[in-house]
């Protein structure tokens, strides 16, 4: 399935669980800590410069944003783990993300979660918590290592091998390298999405 991105648009911003769409359209969700590069990845995948706003303030997005792409939704979950937000705010958006998985009337429409990890720092405690959450509940996901352009080729190879040999040892998880600057991984990730939509 070839994904057509020309008419992609922001369809819905959800701030509470009662606003989740009751729609059979398949969903591909993006998860990751604040400042991991979700907005940049969305713009790169969709071939747009500013469809998803790239903020200079990490953690600014506190809604779940639904982008209409071809025949599916690309769902941008709120970033987590940014220390400058108040505890109440952090609890609120954590609850909203949890509701997306546990109280979503369209939960059966979720085909894949793309879990983003900054290749420079490796997975945070929150990233590991999210991955374990998905493993325990049988939620299909793939891991994408972002910001690969920030490392030399040799250091990138080392960082990817370290992830496979330590953090993801025995899980069968192989992180996909991605850069919004060089477009590395764009076509591979589109194929992963296409395969998930056809399942």
Please, could you describe this protein's structure?
- This protein is of the alpha/beta class and 199 residues long.
- It has a single domain (9-198), classed as Rossmann fold (3-Layer(aba) Sandwich).
- It is built from 5 helices and 7 strands; from the N terminus they run E-E-H-E-E-H-E-H-E-H-E-H.
- It has helices spanning 38-46, 87-102, 125-137, 153-167, 186-198, and strands at 9-14, 27-31, 64-69, 72-76, 110-118, 141-146, 176-177.
- Strands 1-3-4-2-5-6-7 form a 7-stranded mixed sheet, with helices on both faces.
- 35% of the residues are buried.
Relevant terms:
199 residues; alpha/beta; Rossmann fold; 7-stranded mixed β-sheet; 5 helices; 7 strands; 20% strand; globular
Which CATH class applies here?
A: Alpha Beta
Strand count, sense and closure of the main sheet? 7 strands, mixed
CATH homologous superfamily caption: P-loop containing nucleotide triphosphate hydrolases
Global outline: globular
Percent of residues in β-strands: 15-25%
Number of strands: 7
